[in-house]
Design brief:
By secondary structure, the protein is α/β, with parallel strands linked by helices. Helix content is 40%, strand content 23%. It is globular, with a radius of gyration of 20 Å. The model has no long low-confidence stretch (mean pLDDT 96).
C-alpha cells in the first residue's frame, strides 16, 4: 500500500468520528478584497490584462521612482479573510464542530462574516482588519489595514466572552488553533495569560492539540519572535503543540535559532523541520513550501510532493487550508504521513476550485491525484 492509498484508508476509517471532534479557532479576522493589478485595460469591467507576476509588479512600481504611478487594483471578490476564519471555515467543511473567537465586527458582525459567525457560534472581540490581496501567478502580496486588531487583548476577550464560557470552550476543544501572531501586537500577552490563568484550571488532556501559525513574522523583531517561540514550548505542558510554517518562515526561524542555511531539497527540508522541533521541544513542526511539505514528529520526518497547480483559481487561503487538513487529520488520529497527505490535498483541491472540501472530497482528490 503506497502513501496515497494509506492516507485514503486512514481518512475514510476515521471520517465518521469528525462530528465528535471539537475545534476552537482564533483569533484574527479580515475582510479580504481579492484584486488583480491591471497591466492594460481594453474596456470596462473585466476587459483588461493583469500584471502576471510579482517581478513584473515590482518593475512597474520601480519605474515610478522619482515620478508617480497610478496602478488600478481590479476587484475580483470580497470574502471573509484572516488566517483564523479561513482555517475555521475549512475545518467546518470537514465536519468538525468549530467554535470561533476573533475580530469579526463590533458592536455588530460584519456582513461578510454573518453566516460564518452563525455556524461557528462565534465571539467577536473587535472590528476586522481589511486586506487587499493582489494575486499573481507566482504568489500574492497582501496590503493590510489592521489597526483594529490592537484591541485583541486577554481582558477584551474576557469582556466579550466571559471567563466561564472561555474556560468551557478551551476545556471541550480537542484542538485549539491560534493563528496570525504577526499582525496582533498583544497576542504574546494573550498567550501568557492562557498559560498562567486559564490552562492550569483545565483537566489534564495530553491528547489536546495546540496549533500555532505565525503568518509571515519578518516585520517583527527577533526578540519578539524568540519570545513567542518560547511560549509555544510552554504549551507542551498542557497538550501537544504543532507549529506550522511556510518555507519563508522556516528559513527565518531556522536562522534565528542559529542554524546554517541549507539548500532547498527534500532531505534538507526534513532536517530543518526536525532541528526546529528539537530546539523548541515541540511535538510537531510542519513546513509547507508551495510545491511540497514535510513534518517532524517524535516518530521521525515525512515528506510529500504536493499536487502543484500551475493555474490556480485562488491562492489566498491555501496555507490555511493546508493547516486545516493537517490539524483535522491529527485530531482524527491519522499518522503523520497520512496527515501530511491530507493537508496538501486539502490545499490542492481549494486552489483549483476556491471551495473548502469535505473529508470525502479530500479522499476522492487523493485517490485521483
Amino acid at each position: 500500500m503506497n502513501q496515497f492509498e494509506q492516507a485514503v484508508t486512514e481518512l475514510r476509517n476515521a471520517a465518521s468520528f469528525a462530528g465528535n471532534k471539537e475545534a476552537l479557532v482564533g483569533i484574527d479576522g479580515f475582510v479580504d478584497e481579492i484584486v488583480h493589478p491591471v497591466d492594460q485595460r481594453t474596456g470596462p469591467g473585466s476587459a483588461f490584462t493583469a500584471i502576471s507576476t510579482i517581478t513584473d509588479f515590482g518593475a512597474r512600481i520601480s519605474s515610478a521612482a522619482g515620478k508617480s504611478a497610478n496602478i488600478e487594483l481590479a476587484p475580483v471578490v470580497q470574502k471573509l479573510g484572516g488566517n483564523g476564519p479561513i482555517m475555521a471555515n475549512a475545518q467546518y467543511a470537514q465536519g468538525i464542530k468549530v467554535r470561533y473567537i476573533g475580530a469579526l465586527g463590533n458592536p455588530s458582525i460584519h456582513p461578510v462574516f454573518k453566516t460564518f459567525a452563525q455556524k461557528t457560534s462565534a465571539v467577536s472581540i473587535t472590528d476586522p482588519g481589511v486586506t487587499h490581496a493582489a494575486e499573481f501567478t507566482d504568489g500574492k502580496i497582501m496590503f493590510g489595514s489592521m489597526a483594529s486588531l490592537d484591541a485583541i487583548t486577554y481582558s477584551a476577550l474576557i469582556d466579550a466572552m466571559g471567563i466561564d464560557d472561555l474556560t468551557q470552550a478551551f476545556g471541550q476543544a480537542d484542538a485549539i488553533s491560534m493563528v496570525n501572531w504577526t499582525m496582533i501586537p498583544y497576542l504574546s500577552d494573550v498567550f501568557e495569560s492562557f498559560l498562567k490563568q486559564l490552562l492550569p484550571k483545565l483537566p489534564k488532556n495530553p491528547e489536546r492539540i495546540f496549533f500555532f501559525d505565525l503568518a509571515d513574522p519578518e516585520k517583527r523583531s527577533a526578540e519578539d519572535l524568540l519570545g513567542v517561540l518560547d511560549l509555544f514550548s510552554q504549551f507542551e505542558a498542557f497538550g501537544q503543540v504543532i507549529l506550522g510554517l511556510n518555507y519563508r518562515e522556516a528559513e527565518q526561524i531556522d536562522a534565528l535559532l542559529g542554524f546554517e542555511k541549507l539548500e532547498k531539497n527534500p532531505a534538507n527540508l526534513k532536517m530543518v523541520a526536525a532541528r526546529i522541533r528539537d530546539k523548541l521541544r515541540l511535538n510537531t513542526v510542519v513546513v509547507h513550501p508551495v510545491e511540497c511539505a514535510v513534518c517532524a514528529t517524535a516518530q521521525g520526518t515525512e515528506f510529500i510532493d504536493g499536487p502543484l497547480c500551475e493555474k490556480p483559481k485562488i491562492t489566498t487561503g491555501a496555507g490555511d487550508h493546508f493547516n486545516s487538513g493537517f490539524v483535522t487529520a491529527r485530531m482524527l488520529g491519522l499518522s503523520p504521513a497520512s496527515a501530511l497527505t491530507v493537508a496538501v490535498a486539502t490545499s490542492g483541491h481549494y486552489v483549483r476550485t476556491a471551495e473548502s472540501p469535505s473529508l470525502e472530497t479530500i479522499a476522492e482528490f487523493i485517490s485521483t491525484w
